[in-house]
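Human
Can I borrow your eye for a moment on a structure tokenisation matter? Give me a protein, with the fold worked out from its sequence. Write it directly below this note and I will take it from there.

Assistant
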Amino acid sequence: MDIKNLFPLPGASSPSHEPMQYYGLLGDYIGGVWGTLLTALTVFGVFMTFWWSRRMDYRAKTYQIFAEMLRTHEEIVTSLRIGNQTGRDTFSSVLSEFYVIYKLTRQVVDDDAVWSTSDRIDIAYTCTFFGPHIVSEEVLKDYGVEKIKQLFGEIHTARQTGKSERRQFGGHQLRLSHYFRNLFSAYTFVDGTRLSMEEKLARGKVLRSKLSNHEQAVLTLNIMSHLGAEWERTGLVEKYKPIKNLPSFFLTFDRSFKIKDRFPYVNFEW
């Protein structure tokens, strides 16, 4: 078969043209069309290599920052101290104080129509966080100034009569503010990256695995109070479920409280 019949060229009206002229035109045609195509493919290949390299570099830097946040989290936890308790054991003390203060709210106001369970959680956690001081009084004034002052009196009485290393009722703002700020920032950082959702959830799971039951319990109280409202407002709790591993009946401060009722969108591991 004649090659001229396979590659008819524009401007070559007949295959009877001189062979040299024809093959010259054929070479120009192939060089123009296929050369352009190969150039385009080369440019595309270079672009994809550059894009993949940038993507890998971004992932590496993201993981590096996340690892640093995990390291900071562990350093913060290790530095915590309440009485003779250190590290993660301190969260049991925070939880114990909350339980006492929550029960004291019923001595001050027994009627749930005045202070609901949600109100009592907010009041008790705020007092646990700041201590029975003027800051708490100002923050909680909408619950009734006189009632809050009466609650403070009950807390002071419990502190004087309790004499417990685990329950000092002096507030934990210095201990917990840095802890929660770093933890919240870590989840916010992961959520704001350009990683795939699968990778984001995997990083969130790693972060959650660092939290003990008592840490997740205190985090739950923080989220339910006005102090930690941003956790739910930003969707971090629903998306990453940092309290997912909390046992069903771990929080027993009130018989009427059911954690699944409060967080129906969290698929707890029980």
Remarks:
- The chain has a mean pLDDT of 87.
